[in-house]
Amino acid sequence: MGAGASWWVAGLPPISGGLRAVFYTGLLLLCVFDRPSPLHAAAIVGRTERLFYTPVGVLRALGIRWVEPGALRVVTGLTVVVWIAAAAGFSQPLTAILTFLGFAFLHAVNAGALGSNHSTHSALYALFCLCFSVSQDAWSLDRYLASHAHWPLLVPPGSVLESGFARRLLLVFLVYCMFAGGVSKLRYGGLRWLSGEALHFYIQESAEHARWPAFSRFLLARPGLIRGLAWITMAVELGAVLALLGTPFRVALVLAWTGLHVGIVLVMMPAYWVQMWCYLLVLWPGAPSAVGDPGGPGAAVLAGIGYLVCLGLIASLTRQSEAWPVTSVPMYSNGAPPDAERLLTREELKIRAQRAGGGDVKAWKRAWVSSEIGEDIWIVPREDRSDRGPLPLFDLLSGQPGVKLVRWSQYAKVVRQVAIADLAAKPAGCVALEETDAAAAEYPASRFLRDVADVVRKGLPDWRGYRRLDFVCCTDAGWIVIGRAEL
């Protein structure tokens, strides 16, 4: 255990009081001003229709299915208070632990309303790692109070918590996030992702949201360059594990990750400001740790925690788990534009749904932009409005002022889950509504639409101008209706 423990606690410099104060303060400001973040959970949940909210497994295990925005505002306020105390080095590591717990709760609540958003996972991991860090230098309020007011220190000087363990543990988390992104691209996109087609498609789909439109147009006009960027992206992500080998690799790769995130910020919709800020903790220089015995029991305990985290991350990646708080980073990992992929037959829909329901996440394609959706809810006008044709429900409702619905990514996630459950439950050869028996109304899609109809009647002022909702899936023969509810 000695050599292993030494790698965990003595391989990187400890987090100084100055670095702790700068990091906590900067992260707090980013989470206040960058959206969506867990500190906006009250507003996000307040704009979410409960029907489209999916609580994460940890909250369900605790019996929590929904949290009112008022309660979230209280938790947010308390979290900010202990966050400021942690930044000042007051009552370490208790305030760090309370900051993590408050942020983790808000993060978990947010996860049920945001779909597969992983932009602030790194902040969650960083705050967790800081629970194992104490700095009692001149930047510590604990030290000042202890020397001037006999303030009792919760952790005695020279503790192994003054080692570099927190930095090392965060580096492991960050390496995992980048490596998992590369694995997802290979898993879901395969070698087709390396052709540059997928990256070209996503940049094109994000063009209207590009923060540097001229650069976006420059890339779109050069498919060869985009192909090269796809290869570079894969190399940077899959090569992330090399950051664990030593300082030169760590610095070079973290800078490469930053460059990758900056490129995404410029030409695509996601913005990974929070993740880039977390790189500060693994890049900030410092003197090697001179506290804590790498062979002592404290170091052994921390090393054990580190190895357990590694096992958990490996298990999550192997099982392709998306169970909060770990993500296998599947976003934007499809291998080709929708028009380049073969559409499924009705028979294949049933088979794929059964596989997806059994846990095979590759069996059913996930949509990262609206043009990739293979299942949707349409609202059908009355006969006297037939010239308008069916409309995507999300587009109609989200365009209504004051209507509470949900973010598109979560909406698409819920619709996808209902489609899979419906198709898996139906008899073979009876996936479309007209092919099923009289019990069709009791399959998941139609049951879900009856609840959605209540949302429509409540949120759409002219809902009487529409006659029904159709739950549809795309096949090689066009869109088919798998569920229906009258308005």
Report on the structure:
The chain is mainly α. The protein has two domains: 2-318, no CATH class; 342-486, no CATH class. The protein is built from 20 helices and four strands. It has helices at 2-10, 17-33, 41-46, 57-61, 69-87, 94-111, 121-129, 141-149, 165-189, 197-205, 213-220, 223-238, 247-267, 273-278, 280-283, 297-318, 346-357, 393-398, 408-425, 444-459, and strands spanning 375-381, 391-392, 466-475, 478-486. It has a four-stranded antiparallel sheet with strand order 2-1-3-4. Strand 3 (466-475) and strand 4 form a beta hairpin. Helix 1 (2-10) crosses helix 16 (297-318), helix 5 runs antiparallel to helix 6 and helix 9 (165-189) packs across helix 12 (223-238). The termini are far apart.
What is this structure's SSE topology?
Elements: H1 2-10, H2 17-33, H3 41-46, H4 57-61, H5 69-87, H6 94-111, H7 121-129, H8 141-149, H9 165-189, H10 197-205, H11 213-220, H12 223-238, H13 247-267, H14 273-278, H15 280-283, H16 297-318, H17 346-357, E1 375-381, E2 391-392, H18 393-398, H19 408-425, H20 444-459, E3 466-475, E4 478-486
Antiparallel strand pairs: 1-2, 1-3, 3-4
Helix pairs in contact: 1-9, 1-16, 2-5, 5-6, 6-7, 7-9, 9-12, 9-16, 17-19
